[in-house]
Amino acid sequence: MASVPTIRLNNGVEIPQLGFGVFQIKPADTAEATRTALETGYRHIDTAQMYGNEKEVGQAVRESGIDRGEVFVTSKLNNNRQERDDILRSFDQSLADLGFDYLDLFLIHWPLPAVSDYVKRWKVMEEIYASGRAKAVGVSNFQPAHLRNVFAASELTPAVNQIEVSPYLVQDEVRAFDADHEIVTEAWSPIARGKVADDPVIGGIAEKLGRTPAQVTLRWHIQRGDVVFPKSVNPGRIKENFELFDFELDQADMTAITALDRGERTGPNPDEFDYIPS
Ligand SMILES: NC(=O)c1ccc[n+]([C@@H]2O[C@H](COP(=O)([O-])OP(=O)(O)OC[C@H]3O[C@@H](n4cnc5c(N)ncnc54)[C@H](OP(=O)(O)O)[C@@H]3O)[C@@H](O)[C@H]2O)c1
User: Fold this and answer.
1) DSSP 195
2) How confident is the model at residue 1 (pLDDT cuts 50, 70, 90)?
3) Are 139 and 107 a contacting pair, CB within 8 Å?
4) The domain containing residue 19 runs over which residues?
5) Does 261 fall in a domain?
6) Are 87 and 117 in contact (CB under 8 A)?
7) pLDDT digits (tens, 9 = 90+) for 128-163
8) Which residue minimizes the CA distance to atom 26 of ligand 1?
């Protein structure tokens, strides 16, 4: 089995470029799916307070027998945590639910520019990072304008920016901005929630290479240098999505997939999203 490459974050921490996402996996199914992912070889799990399944992710990691230091775990601050004390308490709760004494990466989940001061929240992320209980901190769904406001108020550059990226939303502007500022881009919904399976261009490349459309798309992300963590509850697809390191796309295939861009999101626009759970 070819091994998963790592990418060095701006503070020296290494992150596996391929991980396993658990958004929309019901708590009752999460431990089983995460266990399958760990058995397959994934060593990076992406969860969030909002997903409601941190307990089950932690349970699967702890019960796997794999050293905690071998598995990279990310969680994200829920949108309803705005004030310093509440943010610190929710971080403690994430650690308690996961059963860990540190997180590898903790992110602000959404900027919520219309309803909340994300710079103030970032200042609390600085404190969490300084405590050593998150090995790295970063943001998610931040546009360049939001990052500029963070830079103006903080010496600490986010280690990653987790944004929606797929062949239908290639995000070259935000990715270039991230790269210019030593921020690693993580691509969420990398296979556009399964939609790439029906794409004729991706399907043609997949057929030529004897791969599946999901594998071709995930390989495209890997060769662009982004971090990905496809979600699946299906053991066959969990394995399929891991088999990305024994083939390559040539420049013509890379260009053809990038040309599918149509600015189409599967999720909300970060400039407008203002959802705050009660
Ligand atoms: N920061 C954020 O705001 C944010 C937002 C969304 C997602 N994320 C993160 O990104 C991760 C991935 O994104 P996502 O879950 O939205 O979408 P995704 O990974 O692009 O797609 C998942 C969907 O595709 C299906 N699928 C998985 N593998 C497949 C394959 N090989 N062939 C065909 N279909 C396949 C899955 O169904 P089955 O389960 O039935 O296989 C599921 O319906 C999330 O789990 C989460 O960790 C972050």
Assistant:
1) G
2) low
3) yes
4) 6-192+224-232
5) no
6) no
7) 999 999 999 999 999 999 999 999 999 999 999 999
8) 194
- Has this prediction a pTM greater than 0.70? yes
Probe residue for ligand 1, chosen from 24, 168, 189 as the CB with the greatest number of ligand atoms within 8 Å: 189
Atom 32 (ligand 1) nearest CA: 214
205 in a domain, yes or no?
Answer: no
Identify the burial level of 155 via C-beta atoms within 10 angstroms of its C-beta, where 0-12 means exposed, 13-18 middle and 19 or more buried: exposed
Query: Measured from the CA of 191, which atom of ligand 1 is nearest?
Result: 20
Strands (E), 112-188: 137-140, 160-164, 184-188
Kindly state the tokens that stand for 122: 């970032």
Give the pLDDT score at 163: 99
| End-to-end Cα, the chain, rounded Å | 45
Is residue 54 situated within a structural domain? Answer: yes
What are the angstrom distances between the C-alpha of 95 and each of 49, 58, 74, 90? 10, 9, 11, 9
Please give the tally of structural domains in the chain. Answer: 1
Q: How far apart are CA 167 and CA 172, in angstroms?
A: 11
CATH number of the domain where residue 150 is located = 3.20.20.100
Is 255 inside any structural domain? no
Predicted confidence (pLDDT) per residue in 77-132, tens digit: 999 999 999 999 999 999 999 999 999 999 999 999 999 999 999 999 999 999 99
